[in-house]
Structure formats: C-alpha cells, structure tokens
User: Fold this.
Amino acid sequence: MNFDGVLFFPVTPFTESGAVDTDVLAEHVSSRLPFSPGGVFPACGTGEFHALDADEVATVVRTTVATVSGSVPVVAGTGGQLAHARACARSAADAGADALLVLPPYLVSGPIEGTVAYVEAIADASPLPVIVYHRGTSQYTPAAVTRLAENPKVIGFKDGTGDVGLAQSIVLAVRESGRSDFLFFNGLLTAELTQGAYRGLGMPLYSSAAFAMAPGVAREHYRAYTAGDDERRLDILDRFYRPLVRLRDQTPGFGVSLIKAGLRLGGLAVGSVRPPLVDPSAEQLHELERILAVARDIAPDTAA
Assistant:
C-alpha cells in the first residue's frame, strides 16, 4: 500500500441533535482531496472513534469511501472492546475501505501475548490488512511486532508513545526479520513537530490532524519535509505548529477539539466534540484564530 502525501485524519461532524452529519463529512473530505493527501483515515483518533458506536463508525467509513472514490487509500479505525472492534472491521470491509488502524482495547491491558491475540482476532474478522497503534493499553515489544509481522495481513506499526529508543528497536527488529514492505508511522499528537526525529528512526510516514483544519500549511510542511528543505520546514514549525502545540497543551483532548473549532471558524458546521472532550473557551478560540491567520500567511490556500 502506497501513501504518497500527508496522511489525513478527518473529524466526525455532528448535527445539532448529535447524529453523524454525513453531508458535512462528505464536504469536509472532498474539500481536502485537492491538497493531495496520501491517505484518509476516517473514524480514528481525530474522528472521535472513542465516542462512536459501531453503526456510526460504519456510517463514517462508508461516507468517506464513497467521497474518496478510490483516489487514495482509506484506512478505517477499529479497536476498543473486542466485539466492537471486530464489528467495525467487518463493516469497513463491506464499505470498501483499504485497511484498518487498530486502536487500543478499552480500559484493560493484558500481557503482550494478549495484546498480540487482540490484533490477530481483529485481523481474522475481515479480509482487510491492519496497522497496529502503539499507544495506551496497546504496548508492543520488538518481539511482538516481529511476530505480528509474520502475518501478511499486518502491514504496519504506528507509534504514539514517543519512546524513540523502543521505536528504533522495533524498526530494526522488523527489518532483521526480512519484512521489507512493513510500514512505519509517527502517530504522536501534532506529529509534524517530531517528524524530523522520526524520519531518522526509519519512520517516514506521519499522522496530520492539522491537515483536517489547515491543509495548505500541512501540505507546505510535507513538501519541505520530503524535499529536505529544513530551513522552510523549521520556519513552518516555529510560526504555526509550536503555537498550536502550546494551545493544545492547555487542555486535555485539545488535539481533537482545536481541529473541530478551527473548522467551525472556517465556516464548516462540524458541531462540537462529544464528552469527555470539551470545546475551547472564547479566549482560546481567539488564540486559535491568530494561529490560523499565520497559517494563511504561510499558505494562502489553507482555508480551514
């Protein structure tokens, strides 16, 4: 599977009554396609997977697949309680998704054998290949990832912990196993800020929640990153991403809340986040407006 471009994690829009708004979702996804995302990941972290039931996940994935219409890969979120995860895996396959991103199981954590068995059970539920997410209650060892990589349906590893030593060990272990087509992703919050380091680990791909809100500046960063233009890349990080991260770190969950708020500021009626996440205050929205003005200065076509 080829991901040539920024990896786009769309939000899940909600109507005033709280239902998934498929019309706004289709508009959100279609408006980002001209910015050349390398793949679209619906119903994942930025899409509030934690707050969606299985039917809603199916609706989000089905709408996204129809909107993308084969132009780029669609990787659907799954995870949480095992029966829920398996149901989401099956519905994603039925919808025509290309792969699954396996988020951690809900609340509990088991020994590494259980974590591996959890991934294998989800992989067995549908014909789709899976990418594992190293985060929260899913903590993988090099040996566990190497074992999973023996299964051709397990195609990638996404790091969300920031333990670069462990991440490097996992990359090396998979390489030593001979699995040359295995994919590695940086899945940290606002991953642009750490991707320079992750590229050095052998993890060239990264999530971009910011692309959902400010696709022009996210694309400019990606272009500088792939061209090796560190002067341009560091300027974008300093002017846009560092202030965004400072604002994000003020309140837990703002990695999602700010993206939705930025889209609302840009005129797209995506609704609020679902609890336990909260929306920004008026003061925080004012700061977000200032940050988005900088984004438009960097990339005039970066409309939120």
